[in-house]
Amino acid sequence: MTPTKLNAAIIIVSTTASKDPSSDVSGNLLTEFFTANSTAESTTWQVVARRIVPDDREEIQGALTTLLEGPNKLNLIVTTGGTGFAITDITPEAVKPFLQKEAPGLVHAMLSASLNITPFSMMSRPVAGVSGSTVIVTLPGSPKGATENLGALIKLLPHACIQAAGIQSSRKLHSRGVESLEKQAGVHGHGKHRPKSDNHDGHHHHHRHHHHGHSHDSSTPEVYTYAEPRANRLGDAVTRRYRESPYPMVTVKEAADLIARETQLKEIVEAQVNEDLVGYVLAEDVTAAESVPAYRASIVDGYALVHSGGKGIYPVVSVSHAAPGSIPPLSSGQVARITTGAPLPPGATAVVMVEDTILKSMTEDEKEEAEVEILVDRIGDGENVREVGSDVMKGDVVLEKGDIISAIGGEVGLLASVGRAWVKVYDKVTVGVLSTGDEVVHHDRKGELRLGEIRDSNRPALLSAIKAQGFSTVDLGIARDKAGALQSILIEALQSVDVIITTGGVSMGELDLLKPTIEQSLNGTIHFGRVAMKPGKPTTFATVESPKKKLIFALPGNPASALVTLHLFVIPSLRKSQGYEHYDFPRVRVVVNEDMGLDPRPEFRRAFVRFDAVDGRLHASGTGGQRSSRIGSAHGANAVLVMPASKEVSEKRRELGCIPKGETVDAILWGQIGCA
Ligand SMILES: Nc1nc2c(c(=O)[nH]1)N[C@H]1C(S)=C(S)[C@@H](COP(=O)(O)OP(=O)(O)OC[C@H]3O[C@@H](n4cnc5c(N)ncnc54)[C@H](O)[C@@H]3O)O[C@H]1N2
Ligand code: MOO
Ligand SMILES: [Mg+2]
């Protein structure tokens, strides 16, 4: 039987460990304990997140909220620490408001087990219960006590977690139609991950309504999963529109990790070795079928001889040009005129450069050299000779699987040099680009714009950037804000492309139809629908089985947002699916040439990075106003500055409201570095 896969998270509550994470031992110990209690037949525990927080109510609750609302569907959260009588011990008080259902039985089991070991456990004040569909248990802080307490529960926890989550077979979930989905939503309540308001001290979080699948089917489930959250249903009544996004806000890193997780390698194909091979990644080791050079060749223009002869006058008995054919053998006391790259006559052991010789006499018809004088002594054996295979030996691995065929030419040249006509590579991804919106018109439409119309700048900009990265593109045009139209364009496009990029229609407007169309009409899975970043907050990433897995990046409509998220999320994914090991754009440290304002969200400011020959450092200048509607902010940009959120910076910078001129930040390089 397939084991039940359960996700666990650990929150280490310790002021000491939060300052010095290396001082924590409980994290590893508990993780190992979960692994040790996983069995191939019934349950596998996976610790998918670990957080270390100080003994601080807000910090503990903040960690719980991010975990509960994060991308990982958690079955269990254990905290360790802060359950005693000390003034700072606050964990049970911080956790309790999250528990919609308390579980005194679990508490009792932990206490009675540890009372058997030490009477001090009388002073542990654990709480346990269920928040939404996640079981939460507070363990004591000592590593020994924590594992003992967890040990008292571990046999029962899988059952408790399955019950709490109401998990059901994924096959059931994926085969259900919209109708059954709606029925489900009507029947079941939503788990809300928030502290109960009565116990809560004024700290507000955004909440997501979970629509976890609940099965009443009694057949044995094999694979356990959850139903995904749903967006506005297509055609919802006005009063039922969401007033808050139901999609949890993920970090840029979490978003990138989810994309990387879902990105698969393209299939392997044979490609011809020519100039079109640039940008491909090899899917095989390439072995030389021939040696280079294939014969003993001269490195210089001069005279071939037997090296031991030394200085003196020699008859010129033959000529070897760099051309195919046969050359007569050479004996000691003779020389043969030879050109660079030409084969050595059999018997010759070295070549002397023409500059180290004098012409002594000509043939009678004065057409050929008769004798030359060699002016140098001590000629080495093999001097100026390229031996067979001295550049590449037959059988050598010249290029390896994973090597990129660069635009510099070295790889194509090497393949050509050993006679390779075809190589195995990962196929290139085909990317479809679709603009959406009733207001969007083709950029070259003649005539003035009518009120509310806007020219489509996203599609040309995105198609250019994708093509320039070497991927195949398909222009999918403009979709109107009609669910049916969007659906049929997407379904058709999925037949011919690997990846679909759309822009617009992903935020909170009633005509923002991308998310509901992907979920309900395409039966897709939205892996995230909001990212903590500026620009690009409503960026959405989904996969659909069609029948192979295809990726959909639904980028925001604002032009600067679309370009930033394309470079940050889409292009790395395309590169990964083509086999690039280093699929992200390079990150460098740059000096800012002007004050760079800080935003509450982590911000990616468009910038021009150049090398300054005076101080030998990279410098960045801004590109003017950074509003996400202003595509001009990407004009001249070869990078984005990775600006921290204002709450993440030092007090001094927070007061200034900027990273001041002359200080440094990280930049992600999209293009070539400029020169001063
Ligand atoms: N109530 C809220 N409103 C908005 C939020 C929010 O969180 N709550 N987020 C804002 C942010 S941030 C962004 S970014 C935008 C994203 O909007 P959508 O992705 O839904 O895109 P649209 O509404 O369709 O268009 C936004 C903007 O971009 C223009 N646009 C669209 N397509 C194109 C194109 N192909 N070429 C040029 N310009 C285009 C469109 O006309 C709009 O002006 O939502 C905020 N709202
Ligand atoms: O997140 Mo939006 O892309 O800033 O305007
Ligand atoms: Mg919108």
Automatic annotation (TrEMBL):
Functional summary from the UniProt entry: Catalyzes two steps in the biosynthesis of the molybdenum cofactor. In the first step, molybdopterin is adenylated. Subsequently, molybdate is inserted into adenylated molybdopterin and AMP is released.
UniProt keyword Metal-binding, yes or no: yes
Keywords per UniProt: Magnesium, Metal-binding, Molybdenum, Molybdenum cofactor biosynthesis, Transferase
InterPro entries per the UniProt record, alphabetical: MoaB/Mog-like_dom_sf, MoaB/Mog_dom, MoCF_biosynth_CS, MoeA-like, MoeA_C_domain_IV, MoeA_C_domain_IV_sf, MoeA_linker/N, MoeA_linker/N_sf
A Pfam family the protein falls into: MoeA_C
Gene3D superfamilies noted in UniProt: MoaB/Mog-like domain, MoeA, C-terminal, domain IV, Molybdopterin biosynthesis moea protein, domain 2, Molybdopterin biosynthesis moea protein, domain 3
GO CC annotations, alphabetized: cytosol
Residue ranges annotated for the MoaB/Mog domain, each copy included: 9-160, 432-576
Catalysed reaction equations from the record: adenylyl-molybdopterin + molybdate = Mo-molybdopterin + AMP + H(+); molybdopterin + ATP + H(+) = adenylyl-molybdopterin + diphosphate
Essential cofactor(s): Mg(2+)
Protein name stated in the entry: MoaB/Mog domain-containing protein
GO BP: any one term: Mo-molybdopterin cofactor biosynthetic process
Protein family according to the UniProt entry: In the N-terminal section; belongs to the MoaB/Mog family. Belongs to the MoeA family.
Compositional bias annotation for Basic residues: 202-214
SUPFAM superfamilies per the UniProt record, alphabetical: MoeA C-terminal domain-like (SSF63867), MoeA N-terminal region -like (SSF63882), Molybdenum cofactor biosynthesis proteins (SSF53218)
Pathway stated in the Swiss-Prot or TrEMBL entry: Cofactor biosynthesis; molybdopterin biosynthesis
Gene Ontology molecular functions: ATP binding; metal ion binding; molybdopterin adenylyltransferase activity; molybdopterin molybdotransferase activity
Region of interest (Disordered), ranges: 173-222
Origin species: Tuber borchii
